[in-house]
Amino acid sequence: MTSSFRIWLDAARPKTLPLALVSIITGSALAFSKGEMSWSVALLALLTATLLQILSNLANDYGDAVKGTDNENRLGPMRAIQSGEVTQLEMKKAIILNVVLTVASGLFLVLHALESLQNILAFIGLGVLAIAAAIAYTVGNKPYGYVGLGDISVFIFFGLLGVSGTYFLHTGHLDTLLFLPAIGCGLLAVAVLNVNNMRDIENDSACGKRTVAVRLGERKAKLYHFALLAVAVSAFAMYLSVQQSPLWISLPFVLSLVVVIKHGTAVWQTTQPAQIAPMMPIVVKCSLVTNILFSGVVIAQTLIT
């Protein structure tokens, strides 16, 4: 692996990519349960979501570096610009290239999946909003991530729109109960962001980055984290419980409760932000495992009944 490739691979932060992919997996599994899943739509949606997540990571690297939030006091992994391996100009070019690729992938997706001009235009509009949200989180004069609005954005784009949008691309319609898995997926994505913000709570506060964790304080941020996890798992479980299938098919989903409780307990027992740092890959795995177990149960319910 060349040095340049490694630098840009690290800047893309591949360990965070499951955060974007799980909403596509969940939405596709729900479409499968209706007999309307398209593999080509699923693959194109996965590609577009991956590019959007990478765009968000690159823009975050750039925005925090420009504002001085990425400094020697930050507890997370070294960022590309912060390390000096990538200049601000190089990162700008990478962001522009990623925007072009994301737009191309997104356009191909909606044109392939949708027929109605109205639906195509609506999804193009949502795509523009998603790109703008990915960049404006830390970039610009008034980045919304610095005033505590990141959680809302993540909930909407990685949950509500991610799951329901994917389902619509497959089926061409929405379902009343979609809001339950969409909420579950979105709240787990917010939990990932919350771990990130709890880890950086001291440095963010000193730099004027008023995340939800900073606003709540360490103890209340932990309680908030528990609430995110509990409501997320409950939302998934509620969806499964109302399906017309034997209860035993849903039992594997109980494993997600074990994973989530173990993670939540570990977070609660931390006494300083530095101890939160190792929790980042774990909470991403919690989101991945929970969504995959849910999707697996949905598929099993469909095949058996």
UniProtKB/TrEMBL annotation:
Catalysis performed (reactions): an all-trans-polyprenyl diphosphate + 1,4-dihydroxy-2-naphthoate + H(+) = a 2-demethylmenaquinol + CO2 + diphosphate
Localization per record: Cell membrane; Membrane
Membrane protein topology class: Multi-pass membrane protein
InterPro entries: MenA, UbiA_prenyltransferase, UbiA_sf, UBIAD1
Family: Belongs to the MenA family. Type 1 subfamily.
Main location: membrane
UniProt KW keywords: Cell inner membrane, Cell membrane, Membrane, Menaquinone biosynthesis, Transferase, Transmembrane, Transmembrane helix
Gene Ontology molecular function: any one: 1,4-dihydroxy-2-naphthoate polyprenyltransferase activity
Pathway field: Quinol/quinone metabolism; menaquinone biosynthesis; menaquinol from 1,4-dihydroxy-2-naphthoate: step 1/2
Name assigned to this protein: 1,4-dihydroxy-2-naphthoate octaprenyltransferase
Transmembrane annotation, as ranges: 41-59, 95-114, 120-140, 152-170, 176-195, 223-242, 248-270, 282-304
Summary of the function given for this chain in its UniProt record: Conversion of 1,4-dihydroxy-2-naphthoate (DHNA) to demethylmenaquinone (DMK).
Top EC category: transferase
One term under GO cellular component: plasma membrane
Gene3D superfamilies from the UniProt entry: UbiA prenyltransferase
One BP annotation, GO: menaquinone biosynthetic process
EC annotation from Swiss-Prot or TrEMBL: 2.5.1.74
Pfam families: UbiA
